[in-house]
Amino acid sequence: MDFEPPFQGACKSLLQNSPIIDKFPEVEECELPVIDLIDLDSDHRNRDKCMNEIAEAASQWGFFQVVNHGISPEVLNSIRDEQKKVFHQPFDKKIEQRFLNLSPISYRWGNPKATCLRQFSWSEAIHISMADIPSMNEQHKSLRSTIESFVKNVSQLAESLAEILAQPLGVESSYFKDHCPPRTSFLRLNRYAPCPFSSQVFGLFAHTDSAFLTIVHQDQVGGLELFIDGRWIGVKPNPEALVVNIGDFFEALSNGVYKSIKHRVITNQKVERFSVAYFYCPSFDTVIQSRSTTEPAVFKSFTLREYKQQTERDVRELGEKVGLPRFLH
User: Fold this and answer.
1) Rounded distance, CA 201 to CA 157, Å?
2) Quick check: 153 and 75 in contact, CB under 8 A?
3) Which of 45, 81, 232, 267 has the fewest other C-beta atoms within 10 Å?
4) How far is Cα 8 from Cα 296, in angstroms, rounded to an integer?
5) Residue 74 contacts by C-beta under 8 Å, 6 or more apart in sequence?
6) Beta strands in the chain, from DSSP E residues, in sequence order
7) CB 111 within 8 A of CB 137
8) Distance (Å, rounded) from C-alpha 243 to C-alpha 241?
């Protein structure tokens, strides 16, 4: 198929230099905490209960699901349909310099910096800065309007959840409005292609997210796994829910109270998988400083710019991100 990236050629040497594995170990599938956000609009008692559930899930799991989140099924179905159309365009077209009239590095596939098989990702993605959406090609008007509808709602959801999570930390209510303007966040459209080496290659290798929060809509194929309590567990897809996870910046801001959990996506031998992720990010020069009135700071203060520069160095030298451990006191 002319739309598939040349995954096999790209990871051929990695496959040859890796030990043969019959299959990845079986993992237990679990249901993440499911939080009904309709309670945020109800009486004071239910609202407080809902807010406590959000903070508890963030500290115990680092991941949770939300229903009644304000994004219609029509928008979610539409964004999946549009993703399929755009990813099924010829590969040669996708790697053009200004595909969709976005920046040259918006379309990505595999991992050219991988030094071993566990760092390679059998997937492709389109990274879209919020500032770039208006400049998307007129010929992709349907994709652009669907993204705009999704972003309008998911950005409000991210800000609302962030403010709720900030309250127990004593962070001022205006913090996220001041430091996370709409243009600093971004969207990533993901496609995980069928993989003939699904026992050896990940769709997305294990990592943590940098942003304050990530909000994901995934299809029903499944494949998301989390590393919790020293073991990998699979996340059972919920068609009505969005998946929310804590990122490195929120773990640092919370002084380690909220957990940025390592996660990965396994491949499927027969079917493709789609997801869309919204990353709620601060501006480049926002200082991320641990907030605690009772405990010493676990992490040094840093800006997004410094964090990104360190991550780029690690990826260049090691093939993967190190993340928050670089900023421990």
Assistant:
1) 34
2) yes
3) 45
4) 48
5) none
6) 28-30, 34-36, 63-67, 107-109, 124-129, 186-192, 202-207, 213-218, 224-228, 231-235, 242-246, 263-266, 273-280, 287-288, 302-303
7) no
8) 6
The residues carrying an active-site annotation are 273
Q: Read off the pTM.
A: 0.95
Decide if 258 contacts 165 (C-beta within 8 A).
Answer: yes
At 188-233, the pLDDT tens digits run 999 999 999 888 899 999 999 999 999 999 999 999 999 999 999 9
What would the DSSP string read from start to end of 138-198?
Answer: GGGHHHHHHHHHHHHHHHHHHHHHHHHHHGGGT--TTHHHHH--GGG-EEEEEEE---TTT
Cβ contacts of residue 214 below 8 Å, gap of 6+?
A: 244, 245, 247, 277, 278, 279, 280
Query: Is the CB of residue 179 less than 8 Å from the CB of residue 286?
Result: yes
- Beta-bridged to residue 280, according to DSSP, are 213
The alpha carbon of residue 247 and the mean position of all alpha carbons in its chain are separated, in whole angstroms, by 9
